[in-house]
Design brief:
There is one protein chain. The chain has 602 residues and is of the alpha+beta class. It has four domains: 2-194 and 345-450, FAD/NAD(P)-binding domain; 201-342, Elongation Factor Tu (Ef-tu), domain 3; 460-534; 548-601, DNA polymerase, domain 1 (Orthogonal Bundle). It is 37% helix and 17% strand. It is built from 18 helices and 22 strands. The strands form five sheets. The protein has a six-stranded antiparallel beta sheet, with no helix packed on it. A hairpin with a 6-residue loop joins strand 18 (294-299) and strand 19. The two termini are 43 Å apart.
């Protein structure tokens, strides 16, 4: 029997950030990092890339809060690209291809620098719960802790499918965590089942690269992390990706074999796959009018032979996969190194957690990543950081931290998760954030680093970088005013490069940032005023002992919704399907009456 402060279960992207955050907040504490195989900590199970639209903003936020995903991708990226630059900077999204082996190794190297993180290779048999609170987990021997972060990925009763071939596992070549699902059900949790998939990997040597269009990275890429030195970035050699496409003949072959596709013949017992990263089977059915879909051929490592086929995720049988791959230009002689497959897995319906990642049923138990019904490394990592932070705060008896929708994309994601019932894996997009003008990728430090410092997440080095940058931003603003460039900056026909040339003594990225603030100023002021106006309702706490059935005049539908979701604030309640503004008024009155009753009786 060994005592720890926090136990983190699962070595994926959520688990990594959870362990790191907990170790930052509890520098003298003991963090157990439990995983089935320590060599797979930080592995990229699917796409060898980090970031994207909405996702890149989350990575920047993780960095601003002291996490490690941004540092790892900066050290191991082999193609960096800012997406959506034809639109305003509020919706730009940084993205990078990774050398996935180097990325895994860098994550493991960083974890090894923390002496208070103990990596333990084991499978968790049982969650130990007493009087409604987590007390530890059972391995061969019990590990005890006041807080446990569960980040199981696709491993809870994971089942992989390629055609009619089925194999237990959460990832090819690995096992499953079968007992935890039963444990959670026994504790009263409602579980669901989702599906995701991955495409075949091709041999680089077997592809005709010369006849394929190149997709290039940025000439002057911008790092994800504030700790990365621009003069030594990027660290690795850079590559380009190539673009091919599906064909009408390929589509017909897929349609002819839909009865052999696990998602179409009811072989997979899952509600849905990811809407925004559909399988090629889904694409040819849902978009039947299209003759072709782009497929991006992305090297998985600098020196290895494996190429990721981004765009043809599939679980079709082996013989069909071999045929459809060869129907794409440049792939006529392609050799498949690993077949595509689908994986179905258990999730905990996320309305059973708070926006802090702590479960409502079991005190001290935190959930993060795909177990909450999300997809993507970045979404998982953002939840992991929050889970690790709040697990550590639980140990210290500190109030949990929630991020608002106006503070961070991580806050948007958490609010979405606790106020909806996802029937498909949740993915972040900029369109999900109503305050995206405030949540740009380039201002995550300003939004979150001071908070991270206050919470014990941000180290001295990162804090000093922010303090220096803050001073330079202030100086740039002063110079723009002094040189009377403000009106010029507001003009749409003035390019950023013109303004950067007039302020050439400053970091051009920071000049761009200040100019963006100036151009968006009117919109930002209005958005901030709206946030302030709504704050009273948004943040008003709903007491846990408020009984919806006893609220006079409340409709039965509203009572049922409140009992199912158990929102913790009026803001959350207002975003629940089935709750009307009139219901919010009644709930608000009931909160006030309950408070008055407590004061008069106390």
């Amino acid at each position: 029997m060994t005592q720890f402060d926090v136990i983190v279960i699962g070595g994926g992207h959520a688990g990594v950030e959870a362990a790191w955050a907990a170790s930052s907040v509890l520098p003298k504490g003991k963090i157990a990092f439990v995983t089935m195989d320590a060599s797979t900590i930080g592995v990229m199970s699917c796409n060898p890339a980090i970031g994207g639209l909405g996702k890149g903003q989350i990575v920047r936020e993780i960095d601003a809060l002291g996490g490690i995903m941004a540092r790892a991708i900066d050290a191991t990226g082999i193609m960096f690209k800012m997406l959506n630059t034809s639109k305003g900077p509020a919706v730009w999204g940084p993205r990078a291809q990774a050398d996935k082996d180097a990325y895994r190794d860098e994550v493991q190297r960083l974890i090894a620098t923390r002496e208070n993180i103990e990596v333990i290779e084991a499978t968790v048999d049982t969650l130990l719960v007493e009087d409604g609170a987590i007390v530890g987990v059972q391995l061969d021997e019990p590990l005890l802790a006041k807080a446990v972060a569960l980040t199981t990925g696709t491993f809870m009763r994971g089942l992989m499918h390629t055609g009619d071939t089925q194999e237990k596992g959460g990832r090819v070549g690995e096992g499953t965590a079968d007992n935890i699902s039963g444990d959670l059900r026994g504790l009263g949790f409602e579980l669901g089942r989702l599906k995701t998939g991955t495409p075949p990997r091709l041999s680089k040597k077997s592809i005709d690269w010369d006849n394929l269009k190149s997709q290039l990275g940025d000439e002057h890429p911008i790092p994800f992390s504030d700790l990365t030195r621009q003069e030594s970035f990027p660290e690795l050699s850079q590559v380009d990706c190539r673009i091919t496409a599906t064909t009408p003949e390929m589509h017909q072959l897929i349609k002819d074999n839909l009865d052999r596709a696990p998602m179409y013949n009811d072989q997979i017992d899952a509600e849905s796959g990811p809407r925004y990263c559909p399988s090629i089977e889904d694409k040819v059915v849902r978009f039947a009018e299209r003759d072709a879909h782009h497929v991006f051929l992305e090297p998985e490592t600098l020196d290895g032979d494996s190429v990721y086929c981004n765009g043809i995720s599939t679980s079709l049988p082996v013989d069909v996969q071999e045929k459809i791959v060869k129907m794409m230009s440049g792939c006529e002689s392609a050799e498949i190194l690993q077949m595509g497959y689908a994986v179905e897995y258990d999730i905990v319906r996320p309305h059973q957690i708070n926006a802090t990642c702590e479960t409502k049923l079991v005190s001290g138990l935190f959930l993060a990543g795909q177990i909450n019904g999300t997809s993507g490394y970045e979404e998982a990592a953002g939840q992991g950081l929050l889970a690790g932070l709040n697990a550590a705060r639980k140990v210290q008896s500190d109030e949990p931290i929630m991020l608002g929708r106006d503070q961070a994309y991580i806050g948007v994601m958490m609010d979405d998760l606790v106020t909806t019932l996802p029937r498909e894996p949740y993915r972040m997009f900029t369109s999900r954030a109503e305050h995206r003008l405030l949540l740009r990728a380039d201002n995550s430090d300003e939004r979150l680093t001071p908070l991270g410092r206050e919470l014990g997440l941000v180290c001295d080095e990162r804090w000093n970088v922010w303090e220096k940058r803050k001073q330079e931003l202030y100086t740039i603003k002063e110079e723009i005013e002094k040189r009377k460039l403000g009106q010029l900056a507001k003009r749409s026909d003035t390019t950023i490069k013109e303004l950067q040339s007039k302020l050439s003594e400053f970091d051009p990225r920071l000049v761009h940032r200040v100019v963006s603030d100036i151009r968006y100023e009117g919109y930002i002021v209005r958005q901030q005023a709206e946030i302030k106006r709504q704050a009273k309702t948004e943040n008003r706490k709903i007491p846990p002992d408020l009984n919806p059935s006893e609220i006079s005049g409340l409709r039965n539908e509203a009572i049922d919704v409140l009992n199912e979701f158990k929102p913790t604030t009026l803001g959350q309640a207002s975003r629940l399907a089935g709750i009307t503004p009139a219901d919010i008024t009644l709930i608000s009155i009931a909160i006030q009456r309950l408070r008055t009753k407590k004061l008069t009786s106390g």
